[in-house]
Amino acid sequence: MDLLLWRHAEAVDGSPDHTRELTPRGLKQARRMARWLEDNRPKNLKVLVSPTLRTRQTATAFTDEFEIVSSLGPEGNVADILAATGWPEGNGAALVVGHQPALGRLCALLLSGSEADWTIKKGALWWFTNRVREGETQTVLRAVIPSELA
After folding, report:
1. Model-level pTM greater than 0.90?
2. Among 62, 86, 101, 129, which residue carries the largest CB count within 10 Å?
3. pLDDT confidence bin for 6, thresholds 50/70/90
4. How far, in whole angstroms, is CA 83 from its chain's centroid?
5. CA torsion 106→84→55→117, rounded to 10°?
6. CA angle, 116 as apex, 42 and 48 as ends, to 5°?
């Protein structure tokens, strides 16, 4: 299974939090990453998105075919992401467009074995693959792409 974690692009400050829009810079970040994803996307990719406006705008730069998952909102946690995606047993690939701190905490868990407060830059994408080698389940970091390098 492939798991892609995409932090929403830069958004305006303010409240209510769920209605914050992307800034002009955020829209550029989202479009750049969307082009990279289009060129590099895994097969059978399902896109799961937080219900906030900024995550929906980020995802829309890539596709209009996504599922809004309420548990992926700003209050969500690592367990919510794992449940929504089916990682690591699921088939195909899942792209989550979500928020800090849950995305960073999941990256820490997948790479170090425990949750920690790691930061993912706005608009960046982390790509993991799960595989079994000689009976051992392994998590492989395939890519970390900041939006400015996409």
Report:
1. yes
2. 62
3. very high
4. 14
5. -10
6. 30
